[in-house]
Amino acid sequence: MPQYVAAIDQGTTSTRCIVFDRQGQIVSLAQKEHKQIYPQPGWVEHDPEEIWRNTLEVIALARIKSKLLVQDIVAVGITNQRETTVVWNRRTGKPYYNAIVWQDMRTADLVTEFSKEKGQDRFRPQTGLPLATYFSGLKLKWLLDNVAGLREDAERGDALFGNMDTFVVWNLTGGTAGGLHLTDVTNASRTQLMNLHTLSWDDQLLTDFTVPRAMLPEIRPSSEVYGTVSSEVLPGVPIAGILGDQQAALVGQTCYEPGQAKNTYGTGCFLLMNTGTELRNSTYGLLTTVAYQFQNQPVHYALEGSVAITGALVQWLRDNLGIIKKSTDIETLARSVEDNGGTYFVPAFSGLYAPHWKADARGVIAGLTRFVTKGHLARAVLEATAYQTVDVVRAMEKDAGVSLKSLRVDGGMVVNSLLMQFQADMLNSPVVCPRMTETTALGAAYAAGLAVGYWKNLDDLHQNWGIARTYEPDMDDTQRKRLMRGWQKAIERSFGWEE
Question: Are 106 and 42 in contact (CB under 8 A)?
């Protein structure tokens, strides 16, 4: 009887359950979007209970679609939107507040306050991260300081904290009836509360952020059997892998050697380079983070460049301006013109992340003339993703001391061949699309499958990886430099916009 591994992919806009076979091919897939909540400008929230209901629904749907029995699934892996912060009551299971999403900007004043004494990099030596609105620690502090009764419950041990992986695991393993409160090292490394050297919660950081230790989950490796599902959707199936979404994509792309890198094109863009067991600090605006830790193995680290708005800019063009009806229409519209018409779009809606880290930046469209049409705007929207990726790659090359030979890519935007070709042109390096583009869910499945012996070793996983298409650069150097000069001018116009 064939057996499979299931992956729960709890993302920024939707939750999915994907079932994979031994060759890393999709057997079944179910997906459900959840509501994006914007209480005020710069604030982004999700309803954790809606996400939990959707999680149960997509697991059930994935099983129904392919008539899968419980015994057909040997393990479950979980991957999640990182940094999105939720607190809930251990006894009731109810969240105290909506989940605060990674894009949320409400902690900007806290970033300023914490940076006053020792600068934006005061916690980099312990965490590999600059002070920014991005990470979970300041979101958690905001919740503790602003939600009535939460701090008291946290001190008593009644309030639990986690990124979305922790909330999903706790509910899957019983919730109020003994649910497991844990996270993996990749998610813990995004809280700004874990020490990268010790791989444990840091007492000094907890004191600085005024976070009670009692509310924190146990930190575990990314691949091991944590417990079993108690819910009726997959009763008794081992939960055996947890990875933050970008680390999961690194694992799914089989980037297990130092120097291998991948870029995921989703809501935002996330470029990770495996640096092996060496913890490499960045001096060019990148993050040092945990890549993964397989059972009984040393932890692997990565350098990461995070871009806040890429695919989300296409959605903005669709939903806010109504220039396109479907996200996929953007390529056709962009192809209706030969170039960007001198127009550049800097999507600093939530400030700028790597390598600039400008919380005071805001979005700008530069270079407008009467000549510019909606086709040029569409092209500028796509090109913004490529330019931001180039900025991150150049910083990564300086930090790592190596030139990128090729870039492995995945995520929803890789189906856009105009963007992928432009990316190769601007990088002046090949862009490699794998046969399996669902690498985030696949990475979570790999972590779980390794833990239960479904896949024996990394060689098994390497054999599953194959190339669908390679985009070779085809632009002369003069044009490439001219376009990048325009981008640099545009991005500098976005700095310091917010007072």
Answer: yes
Q: Which two tokens stand for residue 41?
A: 């400008």
E-state strands within 266-401: 269-276, 287-292, 300-307, 344-346, 364-366
Annotated binding site: 12-14, 16, 82-83, 134, 245-246, 267, 311, 315, 412, 416
Residues of the chain with pLDDT under 70: none
Question: Residue 75 contacts by C-beta under 8 Å, 6 or more apart in sequence?
Answer: 5, 6, 225, 237, 238, 239, 240, 241, 448, 449, 451, 452, 454
The pLDDT of residue 412: 84
d(CA 415, CA 311): 12
Tell the residue number behind the tokens 């086709």, with chain if given: 375
* Whole-angstrom distance, CA of residue 52 vs CA of residue 72: 23
Q: Which residues carry a binding-site annotation for sn-glycerol 3-phosphate?
A: 12, 82-83, 134, 245
Annotated binding site for ATP: 12-14, 267, 311, 315, 412
What span, in angstroms and rounded, lies between the C-alpha atoms of 314 and 333? 12
Torsion sign over Cα 62, 65, 70, 75: negative
pLDDT of residue 399: 86
Query: Which among 262, 186, 242 is positioned nearest to 437, based on CA atoms?
Result: 262
The pLDDT of residue 17 is 97
